[in-house]
Amino acid sequence: MIALMVMSGTAARGGVFEPEHLEIIKRVFNEACLDRGISHEGQEAQNLAEAIVLLFQPAS
């Protein structure tokens, strides 16, 4: 899944997510895809994943 790879790559650049946080991020991503009627593949899913991960980054 492209989107999950984006999540992993983004987390690696900004730090590592705790397992429970990663589960929350994945649930949010899955629900957002379902709500928008998009698959977990493609550019739209990648953009969504990046936005979700950015929301979970600690403020600097």
3D structure, described in words:
It is a single chain. This protein has three helices and no strands. It is mainly α and 60 residues long. The relative contact order is 0.24. The mean pLDDT is 80.
Q: For the record, give the distance between the C-alpha atoms at the N and C termini, rounded to a whole number.
A: 29 Å
Describe the largest sheet. none
Strand content: under 5%
Based on secondary structure, the structural category is mainly alpha
Low-confidence parts = none
**Rough shape?**
globular
Task: Provide tags for this entry.
single chain, 60 residues, mainly alpha, 0% strand
What is the secondary structure topology, with strand pairs?
Blueprint: H1 2-14, H2 19-36, H3 43-56
Helix pairs in contact: 1-3, 2-3
Short description:
The protein is mainly α. It has three helices and no strands.
